[in-house]
């Protein structure tokens, strides 16, 4: 990589961090701290001019949009909510895969209903878009987590949430009802960094792209 500027990469802890590590290793980037044990939010790497920022998953696009990070890795769910202003989304990494789904009690859609269905979700924009496209009038209730609780206590008829195995739904007596879209994590790039640090950013993306496409033949 041509070294004339630092490269700052925004990531979230947890599954994205764990799943990106082997991809960063392919680009010869190794964090010098473990975000689970270190309290540092700026993690230095073996490359003096590459830093990782550890931020909330839903904040990754914001850091990249404003150029506080040049590059980020964020779930498509988060990008759909953010809207993508100020960002390019050049690469699907195929990691942290899951599905954005409508879920509820097994009879949620069959039950005769007076008034609008209430839908509890953290994914307000995606839920609004999905139901609007189907011409269904619903009332969206914004939650920040534990969506599975809402139908159990009469807060909502349905939820819109990420589903991987379905075990969390099942444990709460809920079932997946409709698929909204498949989700995976994407590389995002600040629009100014895309121009100003083009070679740097493209070198990283090209290595990641090769690694991802090789992995898919395993
Ligand atoms: P925070 O807790 O910081 O508000 P979060 O709960 O969305 O954010 P994570 O649970 O680490 O953070 O999820 C990060 C990303 O991983 C999500 O945006 C989504 O793209 C993906 N993801 C979330 N849940 C699953 C899942 N069950 N299986 C696979 N990928 C998932
Ligand atoms: Mg979480």
From TrEMBL:
Task: Extract one GO BP annotation from the record.
Answer: L-histidine biosynthetic process
Question: Where located?
Answer: Cytoplasm
EC number(s) in its UniProt entry?
2.4.2.17
Q: According to the UniProt record, what class of enzyme is this? A: transferase
Q: List the GO molecular function terms.
A: ATP binding; ATP phosphoribosyltransferase activity
Instruction: Recite the UniProt keywords alphabetically.
Output: Amino-acid biosynthesis, ATP-binding, Cytoplasm, Glycosyltransferase, Histidine biosynthesis, Nucleotide-binding, Transferase
**Keyword Amino-acid biosynthesis attached:** yes
The UniProt entry, under InterPro entries, shows: ATP_PRibTrfase_cat, ATP_PRibTrfase_CS, ATP_PRibTrfase_HisG, ATP_PRibTrfase_HisG_short
**TM spans (from-to):** none
Instruction: Please give the pathway this protein is involved in.
Output: Amino-acid biosynthesis; L-histidine biosynthesis; L-histidine from 5-phospho-alpha-D-ribose 1-diphosphate: step 1/9
Quickly give the catalysed reaction.
Answer: 1-(5-phospho-beta-D-ribosyl)-ATP + diphosphate = 5-phospho-alpha-D-ribose 1-diphosphate + ATP
- GO cellular component labels: cytoplasm
According to the entry, every stretch annotated as the ATP phosphoribosyltransferase catalytic domain falls at 56-209
**SUPFAM superfamilies linked to this entry:** Periplasmic binding protein-like II
Q: What is known of its domains?
A: Lacks the C-terminal regulatory region which is replaced by HisZ.
Q: Which family does it belong to?
A: Belongs to the ATP phosphoribosyltransferase family. Short subfamily.
HAMAP family annotated for this entry?
A: HisG_Short (MF_01018)
| Self-association and partners | Heteromultimer composed of HisG and HisZ subunits.
Function of the molecule = Catalyzes the condensation of ATP and 5-phosphoribose 1-diphosphate to form N'-(5'-phosphoribosyl)-ATP (PR-ATP). Has a crucial role in the pathway because the rate of histidine biosynthesis seems to be controlled primarily by regulation of HisG enzymatic activity.
Q: What is this protein called?
A: ATP phosphoribosyltransferase
Q: Which organism is it from?
A: Thiospirillum jenense
